[in-house]
# Entry
Amino acid sequence: MTLLVHKYGGSSVADAQRILNVARRIAGVRDTGAQVVAVVSAMGDTTDDLIKLAHSVAAEPEPRELDLLLSTGELVSCTLLAMALRGLGYDAISLSGFQAGIRTDTTYGKARIFQVDPARVQKELREGRTVVVAGFQGMTEDMDITTLGRGGSDTTAVALAAALKADRCEVYTDVEGIYTADPRVVPEARKIPEIDYDEMLELASYGAKMHPRAIELGAYYQVPIYVASSFSDAPGTLIYHGPHGPRGPGESAMENRIKVTGIAYQTNVAKITVRSVPDRPGVAAALFEPLAAAGVNVDTIVQNTGVERTTDISFTVNRTELARAVREVQALLKKLGGTEVVTDPGLASVSIVGSGMQNSPGYASRMFRILADGNINIDMITTSEIRISCIVQESQVKEAVRLLHRGFHLEQGP
Amino acid sequence: MTLLVHKYGGSSVADAQRILNVARRIAGVRDTGAQVVAVVSAMGDTTDDLIKLAHSVAAEPEPRELDLLLSTGELVSCTLLAMALRGLGYDAISLSGFQAGIRTDTTYGKARIFQVDPARVQKELREGRTVVVAGFQGMTEDMDITTLGRGGSDTTAVALAAALKADRCEVYTDVEGIYTADPRVVPEARKIPEIDYDEMLELASYGAKMHPRAIELGAYYQVPIYVASSFSDAPGTLIYHGPHGPRGPGESAMENRIKVTGIAYQTNVAKITVRSVPDRPGVAAALFEPLAAAGVNVDTIVQNTGVERTTDISFTVNRTELARAVREVQALLKKLGGTEVVTDPGLASVSIVGSGMQNSPGYASRMFRILADGNINIDMITTSEIRISCIVQESQVKEAVRLLHRGFHLEQGP
# Structure
């Protein structure tokens, strides 16, 4: 029997009417004979509202308490969806994260799943029920409730799909799939019917809507992930096994694919530069170890060796973490031997992503040329196997996305 | 070290400001050196709002789903109170019902506690923390979440006090204690400084604000329960060990107590009468067993044998259960051999309560005389060891309370 794990985001379950819509959608799938496990996020802005409530009683809410508080958001939506399904005549049961066997470490606020015990979910499926699971949450070995961080419900869904050996994990959201670029920025952006995990990982890390952790997990356990809209029946995007996966060579869309799959961008990037640090071993570690210990997420890192045996080290963080990161770096400045800390809070990143690029040179230079012709200055550059990213002024990033989408002819399709 | 269990009702934690007030109150108690376990209800109307939400997606929400949904209300308030305490510099931790070791049967919506495992609470107390526990909820052996029914948070508090061998369970609410009658109905009603469990049980069952299950539990485990206002420092009412408890005979206020302790009333009473049932053994069982199986709570039962070897059986239910009860009874009518089912939905009960009454005759006749002089007709009468109740028209019940309060001179005190 086909077993599908569905995931519905906050906008898909934002009110009673939308929850009933989701219930009808699941009912339709049940009518085809498939089994469904549905993972849900909290309704609409519930999580943000709960965070505000916490801040109304305490300046710095304890992370453990905050997690137990936030976990209620998904409990509300999952029980309501189970009730709605029963109301339509389809047997259903809701399970909290811990009831669904989601076991995590104790990193409150961004816990990692270390195990999924699917016994209870399997028992309920055997009894013919649709199982509705509260996403975003789990339980530690000490029976404390944790949350998985933003995008955690995607991770819950893929982890359950892996543990249950589901045929597919279907992520329903408010967009119809993965696009070559953000359609709000590039009107001619094209929906991508299929994309492999690595490409999706780069797109997700740099702007497209899907949590990279979930994709990593999907890639590791070879769970096919289908991203589509919960508000329409338009076909979505399948994030699938690479060419070495179950797909046969004859079926692969790989060979005919154009080299650049999509353009991603990310705003709210801030850059911190530590000037004139002595160019000696261990300086980078002395800077980034304390930052990591302080929980500052560092994105791009660039080190430029200058004259006179000193170097400038630059790195980017999300703008919301800038003040904290600067405090940490200022405290380290003397020990590092640097002269000053300089910041630029108004940056963004733009990336071209495509697994086809790795064996084909010339993409980087073409990207730089397109940006230069558009009078867009490049502040920093980083590359991965299948991605080239440039840090630019935030005010220019949308124009950069449009220019690159056009320059690489992404509107034309494979 | 003194260990107190506090319980705060929904109105005491209705918003952030009130939660901070409760936190300051607990902080004050902590400053005296006492340990505190605080049990909280959901904020304000949260539970009612969640029930409405459930009914917006399903006509008849599944009880199990509803319980998991409703349990979120207390999780929100308990995490917020723990955060508020930490914000004031007092170490605190919130525990859900199941984390606090509350184990229940599987009667969703009105589960009974069968065990409290206090290990986790004790561990947190040993670490010097105030423990904030989500009231009203527990977990079954299959790890399903249950709720204890209305007033369940009182029961959680007393059960925890019993399991922890706490010195006292203090129930903070929006009234200053237990009164000789509802002060909104009888302006001269007097606060009762001390009352024993049995009297309180009768008062609580018939209108005063404290869940009878909690009092039963307190009586069984001899937990002194102190009821007071969370909005003032006025002394409240101590529900204490009876004369056979730890209180010495010299300290007892028992001997000088007037015979009637208080007047209780209850509105929303509906009466169902099954007419002309054959007067033979087993008829009552044939009626009430199916009603019990259908979950209909029957209060007063009166059977009047008439002429011609038939009898009328009357009983009362809460008005909200009338339609369901009538459906059940109609289905049984033929089997019972009755002629018709008659209902009166507009009734109320009024009771005089006092343990002193049991050895002193004449209270019943005096009660009936007071009501008769007030032109209040009595529809049904029931008595217990320490209570005499009359069912009257709902429109007359408040006048009945006032007349009885005056007639038994309750404004004068012991």
